[in-house]
Amino acid sequence: MVSPAIIILAVFVLYPIGYMVYLSGFEWNLIGEKVFIGLGNFKALFTSEEFLQVVVNTMKYTFYTVFFSVGIALMLAEYLKESRKINSILQGIIFTPYVIPLISIAFIWMWLMDSDYGLLNYLLEVLEINSVKWLEDPKIALNSIILVSVWKGVGYNVIILLSAMHAVPKDLYEAANLDRASKQKVFFKITMPMISPSIFFLVLMNIISSFKVFETVSIMTQGGPMNSTNTLVFNLYEYGFKYYKIGYASAMGVVLMGLIGICTILYFWALSKKVHYQ
Known about the structure:
Helices cover 72% and strands 1% of the residues. The protein is mostly helical. The protein has one domain (3-274): Orthogonal Bundle (MetI-like fold). 26% of the residues are buried. It is found in: Cell membrane. Belongs to the binding-protein-dependent transport system permease family.
């Protein structure tokens, strides 16, 4: 009964991973003969300043995207959990960006962040604040990508957290109300522990998806300016399908897989015991 699922997993997941690891030991351009070079691709990776900057960019993007996506979602969910008509409308507004195709969102934000005629700089001019080169300044471009990703993903996090909050037993809040507990204490002593499984799940999923960011970078900045927004998956794509360095790109894929695995294991080790299940 489970054999179809096992076959699909083997063909579309396990085999590609194994073949990627295999190719990482070769120098190959998709056309000529494969030349075995052992760990040569990994040595080239870890001695490349470009690749090290790409890893740093990816780690920064992942940390800030996850932190702000889940943090803002937690605050919004706490505000929206009350049964009010306006809250239903706000939930729809907040969730809408999540269902819009990422390509459309990227083009919309490129227009908003345009240095010459973008809406954001127009608003800054109205407020008599210096305009910002959102996507052209190496010091700001990565933050702009993070902003777009947070705006896109926060709605999904809000819906998940709202569902978790609505599942918290009401008698716990009633008991806290009888004890005259403050809102802050109720939130940190009741709400947070009770929804911790959902928070744990969301943080993990956000970490994995952030490591694999591609479309936003590809459309909005192409990794620039000055490599400031280049990430692992986009860099892998460039070397694999633009420069045809398949072995080098495969080595990047192995490193990416290793980083995701290490971060996931550390995350489980550090926080899984702090999750409270009913």
